[in-house]
Amino acid sequence: MSDPAIEPNPTPGLKQLVDWRNGVAWLVLLFTLLVQLVLFQHFQARETRAARQEFHLLGEKVTEALRKRLLDHEQILLGGAGLFDATGEVSREQWRIYVQRLQLADNYPGIQGVGFSRAIQPEDLPAHLRQVQAEGFPDYAVHPPGERPLYTSIVYLEPFTPRNRAAFGYDMYSDPARRQAMQRAAEQGLTSITGMVTLMQETHGKVQAGVLLYVPVYRQGMPLGSPEQRMRALRGFVYSPYRVSNLVNGILRNMDLPLELRIYAGAAERPEDEIFTSTTANGPAAGQYSELQQLHAYGQVWTLRMTSLAEFDERFHANWATLVLLSIGMSLLLFFLTASLALRQRRAKALAERMTQAIRRSKHDLRLSEERLSLALKGSNDGLWDLNLEAGTLYASARAWEMLGHRAEEFPCDLRLWERFVVAEDVPHERSRLAKAMLSRRDHFTAELRMQHKSGRIVPVLLRGYIQRDLDGQAQRITGTIMDLTEHKRVEQLKNEFVSTVSHELRTPLTSITGALGLINGGALGKAPPAMQQMLEIAYRNSLRLGHLINDLLDMEKIAAGKMTFDMREHALVQLLEEALANNQGFAEQHGVRCVLAAPPPVTVWVDGLRLQQVLSNLLSNAIKFTHQGGEVQVHVLQRDGLVRVCVTDQGPGIPAGFRSQVFAKFAQADTSDSRTKAGTGLGLAITKELVERMGGTVGFDSEEGHGSTFWFELPVQPPMADQPAEDDGRPRLLVVEDEPDTGRLLHLMLSEGGYAVDRVQSLQQARERLAQARYRAMTLDLHLPDGSGRQFVEELRNDPALKELPVVVISAAPQLDEALLAHGVFWLHKPIGSAQLLETLRNALVGGAERD
Asked: CA within 20 to 30 Å of 178's CA: 253, 265, 434, 523, which one?
């Protein structure tokens, strides 16, 4: 049922219109009729003067709109020039972002783009071509071809559409019309525009007249007092090309202009200089009013001829009857509008009351929601935090500050405040992890951090957050909760210590039990009765199972405590696989299962051989247990993209869908019933995952219920060592020592493109072997390697007479410089690094090494 307070009123009748309460409406009607009568008497005498005056204003409006738009475009180009002045050099990506933020298509219709034309001396042309081609444009060339005293190639032009690609590499200085404007801009240091030209963008469709606007860019620190000095300091031009028809139509599209406009590039109305006309298919306009104006801008003169259209003339020559009817109609409209407003006062009041009630309900709901959130946070004992990337602020609730022993008012709301409370050595890693989360497409994230309490102790916390993004996927705000994990970690440590203690204490008596049972079963004490022999065999098998469980528990304890060591070396994968199959052959025969190894590729991996055998044994024993008698377990190897994948496929029942997320969890088993048929501790796959990841690999599985499972792990392929000379075709040979495969490949690519021959190794042992085989001009070194410290290796090199002068460039993620290493004459780069930074540092290192020689 509707609310009677807001029920619409019926249509007012004649009696309501003549009611005294409607007197204001009658006064409005009378007043408007009298005013219009007076105005009508003077209208005819003044219409011509008003028409001329309005047409003149329209002409000035057009001229001013053109002038203002050109000024806006000049500001765009000045902003681009300022970008060069501020940064010294602008990359292609930075230029793309700058132009993208301008939103040219929406804000400046008619502009074809914003570009940068670089001034190039003839002797610098080859180097320029190589640089641009190396940026991903192998077909780039400056055109038109030919020798000239100065080249001005278009290197940036955004947006980089097919039309604009036609201008990429074009030397505008080679065209006389363009050169005149460019030279004027460069010598005077002012914005300059060309006369009428044909743009390079006219690749298809109707060809339009075009113009170009230039702003010069000079090299910083060079004198600019005279035209000659400005030409010598010239770096290039920030410019924009315009199709004049698109430009003018874009300026005038929102202006209701009942006139025809013709624009001539020059001081006279010559047909050959016409660059724009708004003439329709009906031919030139023959209106009663015409005006000529000139626009002086940036060294050029545009002549504008404006002629009124019929609709403009008719606006001032309408017949009297139409005006009378219009006047009466407007008066009546005002009368009924005033009457309607007066009669609907009650309805407006009722609507206002309803809106007031809705606002009150909304406030109540909001307050209730805030109370629920507050109670939920209190119940969970978690803190709340909010990182506003746009405002640059950080908010944390009182509970969040309490976890660290502080109060909120002690610190400003700084965006980077959180870094002050993260353990110092963790800051680079956490900063990198936060950046990756913001650059990814994920909306939620969870992370564990170590934070510093006011008392100095370390507080482990769990962060959960939601990332709010804009339409382009850019992170704007991150909000979430913080949980104190101190008690959780303490309980986990107690559990691990308990498991470790119990496992160690059980191991000694279990060894005696297993040994004694083995001797008895072997007949050392004579033959036992059949019934007793059966019980002894059961006891012996279960003691072995208990031993496996204890070994798995000890392995997990070592991994959790970080005490498990790895002897990383090069191994032939084929030998490791064949050895693993041989070691598990007896277990396979016991279950009536055949193990088959497909011919693997001859690759080398960088692993701990014993640990990888443990991984293979876990995967093979699982596959054998879950394959039916008479079945087959297949082992095959795939190689791609610098990685090798080892797959173990069984013919078992597959993994249930509800259990797949727990496959690699500790003590996880798909069959947890008391009557399960497959024995196991539930730790094998968890240990396998930890071992593979500690050796730089990844592990996973593919399974379909009823059709078996395939467990696999991937490792980086170790590049084969080869004896190579210190020079290749005149290129200096360098040694890259880096254990992280992706970083090693990146350094190899950067240095190869920089003109060096490169050998890459992943350990100190390999580095020693390479240095003993060949002579290298320089070496890059990571300080944290699997088989030793990079710092000790530098000291070892400096104590070797044959290598003490070898230039060393340390590439490290450590936040602080190592003064001891700097004293040994090494060069230092912080990760991440760029190609130009790496090559420049390497050149300095080679020069320093040559001076020492």
From this structure: 253
Number of CB atoms found within 10 A of residue 503's CB: 19
- Inform me whether the pLDDT recorded for 593 exceeds 80: yes
Q: Which CATH superfamily is domain 568-716 in?
A: Histidine kinase-like ATPase, C-terminal domain (3.30.565.10)
DSSP alpha helix (H) spans, 92-175: 92-102, 104-107, 125-134, 162-165
Q: What is the crossing angle of helices 741-753 and 835-852, to 10°?
A: 70
Residues 468-512 pLDDT 10s? 888 877 888 888 888 888 877 777 777 666 666 655 566 567 666
- CATH level 2 (architecture), domain 490-561: Orthogonal Bundle (1.10)
Phi and psi angles of residue 391, each rounded to the nearest 5 degrees, phi first:
-85, -15
Task: Please give the class, per CATH, of domain 381-484.
Answer: alpha beta
Share the mean pLDDT of the chain: 79
Task: Enumerate residues 6+ apart whose C-beta is below 8 A from 298.
Answer: 70, 74, 190, 191, 192, 193, 213
Instruction: Show Cβ contacts of residue 56 under 8 Å, excluding neighbours closer than 6 positions.
Output: 291
For the whole model, what pTM was predicted? 0.37
770-780 pLDDT per residue, tens: 888 888 889 99
Select from 3.80.10.10, 3.40.50.2000, 3.30.460.10, 3.30.450.350 the CATH code of 61-307. Answer: 3.30.450.350
Instruction: Parse the chain into domains and list their residue ranges.
Output: 61-307, 381-484, 490-561, 568-716, 727-852
- pLDDT tens digits for 397-427? 878 788 888 887 777 777 777 777 788 777 7
Q: For residue 597, give the amino acid letter.
A: L
Strand order in the sheet with 274-277: 274-277, 259-265, 300-308, 290-297
Q: Which helix (H) or strand (E) holds 827?
A: strand 827-830
Q: What does the buried/exposed string (b/e) look like for 53-66 if buried means 16 or more CB atoms within 10 Å of the residue's CB?
A: ebbeebbeebbebb
- Identify whether 719 is preceded by a cis peptide bond (ω within 30 of 0): no
Q: Is 292 helix (H, G, I), strand (E, B) or coil?
A: strand
Domains 490-561 and 568-716 share a fold: no
pLDDT bucket at 554, cuts 50 / 70 / 90: low
Residue 221 · residue 256 · CB < 8 Å:
no
Residue 561, C-beta contacts closer than 8 angstroms, at least 6 positions apart: 496
